[in-house]
Amino acid sequence: AGTVGELIAEGKVRHFGLSEASAETIRRAHAVHPVTALQSEYSLWTRDPEAEILPVLAELGIGFVPFSPLGKGFLTGTVDTASD
Question: What is the pTM of this model?
């Protein structure tokens, strides 16, 4: 977080984000430099961020960017069980 903060101060980076971080890591990083967003898997099958992560993000004013919201293709009809 400190290094990214320096890069932001130099104008080389605009925002600081994390991926798949724990609540403790988010708090530690945010204390050093404000975190803009967290990216984490979140779908019908993976609701893990709801219990601990989302409340921390709301408390600290950090955005949430879910990945695989459609179950890694399952809900889009692109899952193919046939082997090549």
Answer: 0.74
